[in-house]
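Dear colleagues,

For the upcoming journal club I promised to circulate an example of a predicted protein-ligand complex. I picked one with norvaline because it came up in last month's discussion. The inputs are reproduced below in full, followed by the predicted structure.
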Amino acid sequence: MKLKTKDLLTLSELTQKEFVDLINYSIKLKKELKKGGTKPILKNKTLTMIFQKPSTRTRVSFEIGMYQLGGHTINLSSNDMQLSRGESIEDTAKTLSRYTDCIMARVYEHELLEKLSKHASVPVINGLSDSFHPCQILADFMTIKEKKGKLKGLKIAWIGDGNNVCNSMIYGAALTGIEMSIATPKGFEPNKTVVKESKKSTNIELTTDPFIATKNADVVVTDTHSSIHNSDPKRIKKFLPKYQVNFKLMSTAKKNAIFMHCLPAKREQEVTSSVIDGSQSVVWDEAENRLHSQKALLVALISA
Ligand code: CP
Ligand code: NVA
């Protein structure tokens, strides 16, 4: 499959059909891998990865995904690049485009990715910025489709920080007709523009009450109360004990609700061990699906 967009920075670049097609293609690639292997669709293609922030899942799943597709990855820490000595992102983009078929970058400021995408002639993928995490949401919606058999008509409850992952999930909800109820403390709401745009396509509710969010929810999602870009330990006090996913909160969602978390998790903060390690949790499938959904994305962006 092919996408119209050159880059994937937020998810808002995709049409509803493209998003759903990507999810279905991810599920197909997963089945193919389990049956015996992936076809070398990206033979001789290269992906260059730039990390300004730490990563376990994103780095490993992109690297192994490219390998399984017959391609190759180069992994760069921005500290080891001339970027750290002041070379501009524009010049970096132009240089890398002469070597590689695709760039994936994990950055602090989202604007840096926009500059990278503007000046790179090859596709640019957002591997997480302070504002968005689109690759996570491809994996999350793939997981929801696998577990629930459908997307449209479901309800997601987001509990905690209205952060980068939450912003991308709202775009995912708008692309699929999933309803979202988002419970955050005052001042920790998701991006206003993202909410406003997405409300045109689906029902997005903002509340400060986690129990309103989980009412009738099919999926309960949370993330750390302090992200890489805002790691002030004082933040946590604003969230606890109210914004913790525990058995009591889970029991107010639908009986067959699933629990999701992009990981890494802080057990006993945003989620109790009993929930994340319990029978409703699908976090390991979610982590695995990063591999399959990013393979689908890579094929859709860079195959001939
Ligand atoms: N969920 C996620 O992006 O994990 P990493 O930070 O380990 O890449
Ligand atoms: N919101 C988290 C996600 C980590 C994958 C962060 O930005 O640190």
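Two points we might discuss: The domain at 11-133+289-302 is CATH 3.40.50.1370 (Rossmann fold). The longest strand covers residues 46-51.

See you all on Thursday,
B. R.
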